[in-house]
């Protein structure tokens, strides 16, 4: 990988690996718990692989995997069997590896002797760290440094690279016999008894060692991730439904979003942000984190506030072509790795995203619609105006992108693979490119700013932003609409030509309300047509297009977050049946994927294969995929709060027997019940009127509110 450029997807981890995740840490291992060298397995923290090998041997033989017992997202138990004892045909030695990931690793190792005779064993743990940057591993281009030093002492091993100022310390209790690269235990496991050891892997960053979050020095339930998870579970809304699939999927989504939260070190009271997904994107992303926090608003609004604050703190202030930073611009990605040649910007912010900036303003507006954090939102208003200044300075009249150097991403919308934007004949579009959905985001950002002005009593500023939104809407519907095709172009290329492929992007335009009402039926028909709808979701690209490939990343696959926004857009314009088909198609897919929607899956038709086909390098868990079921429920509820105007719309579709208790709204906790006779809400703040009908698609515009 050359800096931030896209060079294809990382190698597949395969379905025989296990991923554990907590905040900015994760672990990828085999099903027996080993982490094998030569691939992507290992323990990662702060974008550095602090362990590249972790192999357990009993009498110099590997442990056979029996079962993995997943628990919390950061915790799993690996059950295995050692080779049969001398002269025996069957194993009598059970191996239990109880593993916790977070800020490093803790592993409690137990050998249980199931025979009536003591077992004398040599237990070896082979340990290595290549101190590789995440970018290197992801691209399969690890540049091995020559100064990785391994030192053994009475507590374990110390592994450090001087040039990268990174490494790890491995300590064990009871103390092992340690030699460079191996921890050795010579033990006797009593008949019908057990032997146990605890191992802890502490990261070393910039020369400073920090203890793993699940320390062996205090009970597991006292670890910070465990306390945070307990609070997350206690404070989150509870859902009771007769739909087993929906209940399981929502529970998994809540758990995954809780595990992907990122907390600022040393700032425990600051609301968290959220990482984009495991294993390769365990960091703050502008677009991903903003859309995730938007879709998760009915679960927790702290994610939106924390994400907005963190992005505001990293908002561009200077012009830098290498990172594509510009004043007012919101970043694309933030990394923590050591700055090395293979990844010259690791550890810094990269700003190559055309949509993070309008999405920042949109989420600010939506958070205010929910009546939350009025003072904090006001504090962030200068960042809103700086973002809008960047948009206005870049839009002519449409907001477009072209990378600043050959180190940047070629495509800078959400379909950011190098071939993700193409014409109907498959020709790749040339920049600068103005994407359809980005104009929708900008439109919604302008409307949000008009509402802020309205609430502040500034009628002149309100009129200015409303007029700007209307001009953009008119221009968009004139330039992007393809009357002979009956759909919107995915974008405009550098020559101003409409990029005429039939793609899912226009569904986002329904979501933001920029689509003319008389054209919305055509858009809905196209999105649910056989060439677009697979039976599980809307494909990113129609089967009739030249670049279509159901196994591609962006040219024919199905993305849950894409579909969640499309469903919201369809419901906004009154296409209830179409939105319902997408929502329940995705829930059917989630059931097959073990209740967890992956980042994406292949776009094969449901009629061709019985189950949805996995995409081999899909992230799981992935933030906006995890938030998608929560957004789908909001869509099916037709739940639209507008607290500054004293209104809440609620008119459920096919959600009978659903009860949501403790949903946060305007500082209160409300309860929603959907039954055969309609829906009720209890606990609404004073002065808020419940409207049991869907919100009109045009009520976002001030002049028709």
Characterise this structure.
The protein is an alpha+beta fold. It has 14 helices and 36 strands. The strands form nine sheets. Strands 7, 8, 9, 10, 13, 14, 15, 18 and 19 form a nine-stranded antiparallel β-sheet that branches. The protein has a five-stranded antiparallel β-sheet with strand order 1-2-3-4-12. A hairpin with a 4-residue loop joins strand 14 and strand 15. The two termini are 49 Å apart. About 1% of the residues have low confidence.
**Tally of contiguous helical segments:** 14
Please provide the count of β strands.
36
Beta-strand proportion: 15-25%
Please identify the structural class as seen in this structure.
alpha+beta
Query: What low-confidence regions span 5 or more consecutive residues with pLDDT below 50?
Result: 339-347
Mean pLDDT, to the nearest integer, reads: 92
Radius of gyration: 26 Å
What would you call the shape? globular
Helix content: 25-40%
Q: Tell me the span between the first and last alpha carbons.
A: 49 Å
For the largest beta-sheet, the strand count, sense and barrel status come to: 9 strands, antiparallel
Protein name: Glycogen debranching N-terminal domain-containing protein
Pfam families: GDE_N_bis (PF14742), MGH1-like_GH (PF22422)
InterPro entries: 6-hairpin_glycosidase_sf, 6hp_glycosidase-like_sf, GDE_N_bis, MGH1-like_GH
Question: Which key phrases capture this entry?
Answer:
five-stranded antiparallel sheet; globular; MGH1-like_GH; 6hp_glycosidase-like_sf; about 700 residues; alpha+beta; 14 helices
């Amino acid at each position: 990988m050359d800096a931030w450029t896209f060079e294809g997807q990382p190698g597949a981890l395969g379905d025989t690996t296990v991923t554990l995740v907590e905040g900015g840490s994760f672990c990828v291992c085999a099903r027996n718990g080993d982490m094998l060298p030569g691939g992507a397995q290992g323990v990662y923290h702060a974008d550095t692989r602090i362990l590249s090998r972790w192999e357990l041997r009993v009498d110099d033989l590997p442990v056979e995997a029996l079962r993995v017992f997943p628990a919390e997202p950061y915790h799993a138990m690996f059950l295995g069997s050692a080779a049969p004892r001398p002269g025996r045909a069957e194993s009598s030695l059970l191996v239990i590896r109880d593993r916790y990931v977070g800020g490093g690793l803790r592993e409690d190792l137990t050998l249980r002797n199931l025979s009536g005779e003591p077992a004398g064993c040599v237990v070896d743990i082979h340990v290595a760290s290549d101190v590789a940057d995440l970018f290197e591993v992801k691209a399969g281009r690890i540049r091995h440094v020559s100064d990785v030093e391994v030192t053994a002492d009475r507590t374990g091993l110390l592994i450090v690279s001087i040039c990268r100022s990174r490494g790890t310390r491995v300590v064990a209790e009871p103390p092992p016999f340690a030699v460079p690269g191996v921890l050795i235990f010579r033990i006797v496991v009593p008949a019908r008894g057990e032997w146990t050891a605890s191992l802890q892997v502490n990261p070393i960053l910039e020369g400073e060692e920090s203890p793993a979050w699940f320390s062996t020095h205090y009970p597991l339930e006292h670890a910070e991730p465990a306390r945070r998870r307990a609070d997350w579970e206690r404070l989150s809304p509870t859902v009771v439904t007769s739909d087993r699939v929906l209940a399981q999927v929502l529970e998994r989504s809540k758990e995954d979003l809780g595990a992907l939260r990122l907390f600022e070190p040393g700032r425990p009271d600051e609301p968290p942000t959220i990482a984009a997904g495991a294993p390769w994107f365990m960091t703050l992303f502008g677009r991903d984190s903003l859309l995730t926090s938007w879709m998760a608003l009915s679960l927790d609004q702290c994610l939106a506030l924390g994400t907005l604050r963190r992005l505001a703190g990293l908002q561009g202030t200077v012009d830098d072509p290498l990172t594509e930073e510009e004043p007012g611009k919101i970043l694309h990605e933030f990394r923590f790795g050591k700055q090395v040649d293979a990844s010259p910007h690791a550890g810094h912010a990269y700003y190559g995203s055309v949509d993070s900036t309008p999405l920042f303003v949109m989420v600010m507006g939506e958070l205010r619609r929910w009546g939350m954090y009025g003072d904090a939102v006001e504090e962030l208003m200068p960042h809103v105006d700086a973002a809008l200044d960047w948009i206005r300075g870049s839009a002519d009249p449409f907001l477009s992108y072209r990378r600043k150097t050959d180190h940047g991403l070629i495509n800078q919308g959400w379909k950011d693979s190098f071939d993700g934007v193409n014409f109907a004949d498959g020709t790749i579009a040339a920049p600068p490119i103005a994407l359809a959905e980005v104009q929708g985001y900008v439109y919604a950002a302008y409307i949000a700013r008009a509402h802020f002005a309205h609430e502040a009593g500034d009628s002149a500023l309100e009129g200015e932003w409303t007029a700007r939104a209307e001009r953009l809407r008119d221009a968009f519907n004139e330039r992007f609409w393809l009357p002979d095709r009956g759909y919107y172009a995915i974008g405009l290329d550098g020559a101003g030509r409409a990029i005429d492929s039939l793609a899912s992007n226009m569904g986002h335009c329904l979501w933001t309300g920029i689509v003319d009402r008389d054209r919305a039926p055509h858009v809905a028909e196209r999105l649910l047509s056989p060439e677009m709808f697979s039976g599980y979701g809307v494909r990113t690209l129609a089967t009739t297009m030249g670049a279509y490939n159901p196994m591609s990343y962006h040219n024919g696959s199905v993305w849950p977050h894409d579909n969640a926004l499309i469903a919201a857009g369809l419901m906004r314009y009154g296409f209830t049946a179409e939105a319902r088909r997408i929502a329940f198609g995705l829930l059917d897919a989630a059931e097959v994927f073990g209740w967890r929607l992956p980042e994406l899956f292949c776009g094969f038709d449901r009629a061709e294969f019985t189950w949805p086909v996995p995409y081999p390098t899909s992230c799981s868990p992935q933030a906006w995929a995890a938030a998608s079921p929560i957004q789908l429920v909001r869509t099916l509820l037709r739940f639209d709060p507008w607290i500054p105007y004293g209104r809440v719309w609620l008119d459920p579709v096919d959600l009978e027997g659903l009860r949501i208790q403790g949903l946060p709204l305007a500082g209160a906790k409300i309860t929603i019940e959907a039954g055969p006779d309609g829906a009720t809400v209890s606990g609404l703040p004073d002065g808020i009127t419940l409207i049991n009908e869907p919100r009109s698609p045009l009520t976002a515009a001030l002049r028709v509110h």
